[in-house]
Amino acid sequence: MEALKQELKEKIIAALNLEHISVEEFDDNETLFGDGIGLDSIDALELIVLLDKDYGIKLTDPKEGKTIFQSVETMANYISANRTK
Fold first, then answer.
1. Domain 2-82, what fold?
2. Where does the Carrier domain start and stop, copy by copy (predicted)?
3. Residue 40, phi then psi, degrees to nearest 5
4. Which sign, positive or negative, has the C-alpha torsion 16, 11, 38, 61?
5. Which residues of the chain have pLDDT under 70?
6. Is the model's pTM score more than 0.90?
7. What are the backbone dihedrals phi and psi of residue 14, each rounded to the nearest 5 degrees, phi first?
């Protein structure tokens, strides 16, 4: 699980061009949207694409994304349970 969280942090930083955040500073439980990392709805779309492309997970319900994308921890748990790649 730790390897998956590390991989996710690296992919999120690269996909969303978050040069101001290093993997070491990226806390597993930090909120990704709002007051946490500060991601927005465009970033959410990028995360949906990342899940599909890298892990074979297709999100069809936007409400589901809100739960999954709370933090790196919640994303890693969801990926572990649902990945097809």
1. 1.10.1200
2. 4-83
3. -125, -170
4. positive
5. none
6. yes
7. -70, -50
